[in-house]
Write a structure and sequence with these properties.
alpha+beta; Aminopeptidase; Alpha-Beta Plaits; six-stranded mixed sheet; globular; binds zinc ion
Length: about 475
Amino acid sequence: MTRSQVALTLLAAAILAPLNCRKAEGVENDPLDREAEVALVEYVKIDTSNPPGNETAGAKFLQQLFVKEGIEVKLVGSDPNRQSVYAKLSSGTNEKALLLMHHIDVVPAVANEWTKPPFSGDQSGGYIFGRGALDVKSLGVANMIAMIDLKRRNARLRRDIIFLGVADEELGGLRGCKELLEKNPELFANVGFVLNEGGYNETAVDKITFWGIETQQKVPLWLRLNVKGMPGHAASPPPGGGTIAKLVRVLDEVMKIETPYRLTPEVKRYFRDAGRSRPGNRGDVMRAIKEPLDIKQIEEVLPPGYRSMLQDTIVLTRVSGGAAPNSIPARASADVDIRLLPGTKIEPMLERVKSSVGKSAEVEVLLAGEPGPETSSDTELFRLLAKAMKEDEPGSDVAAIVGGGTSDSRFFRARGIPAYGIAPFKVNYYDADSVHGTDERIRARFFIEGTRLVRKIVADFCVRAK
Ligand SMILES: [Zn+2]
């Protein structure tokens, strides 16, 4: 670069800087931005694919960062390979504590389907790539940075802040959050609020138009259907075509189970509130949603994510069986991921599956959720979240939403502890699809902005007014 080019570049940077740092609000060149980015890159490099999890490596990574800051931290959990990490900033008060949650484990990645190695922490094109970049190591780092920020500033707290990075969320949390709540209740003795994953935001040309704060979620029911038959040579098949053919017929029966559209009170409120900020047909349909539902209109106008909030869903997610093209196996199995509308008990659906497969398959329950209460949006924390989000993106709207997924929040809601699922990072729709998919990535700039938002939320809720 010549001197004049350098000068021009600096001039351009000076002109652009106020635009780029519009959100910085006095924290320009904050070293924590860079530290957050480095921490995320290092964190996604740790392979915590579940199964098997190996969350201890991720837990230790976070632990040493807390130790360096002099923040009280320990590893917790019964399995040495599947530890969770628990850190705390004490306030010396009895106010209800804020728990900042995320999960250390990630879903497995099929490396050859990715353009970047999934555990390389590749930084290119303004993105940080890696399994967990969105779901949900980014939130874990933001939570940690928010606490480090307060510790370094020696902030006087009005409530304790607890950090928890848990194992096993992706497979239902039974060996992570649920186990900790049951075996180590002292860790959560004074927790009054939980911030966790689970919300979402919508963008239009890099601006957030809508923030959804999750207060309720669908109920998971994961099943494995096991089929047995006579093994043998494929050249002389038994009547019915053998084990795999039997499994196909079983799955066909399961897929015939009807899941009619219906409207729950929480989804009705969610659609009406979220519809406010949506232009066009979609907004019209959401705002006017009521029973009896106009099925034709729903199917024409609403994308799958919204339609899934109006019905139970049954999806085949895995099939397994067979070893060679010319052999009939003795066993075959398939996994079915069922999500029931909020408030729905699992037993009736389980019975329907059992009766549809009859004696052809054994039905194994992998995960059975329980309908839990909704977290109220009439709390100090919800109002603070909504205010912070609206201020972060002027003109945006905020509402309590029902989540289609499952998270550890349900264990807290079942205990009557308010838990909010938030998505502090701006995510464009074309990046959002990388969650549980290929080339999972977060825009580095959006990660920094979201981390600053989390810092602000935690500070506003937990630091004593002067
Ligand atoms: Zn997640």
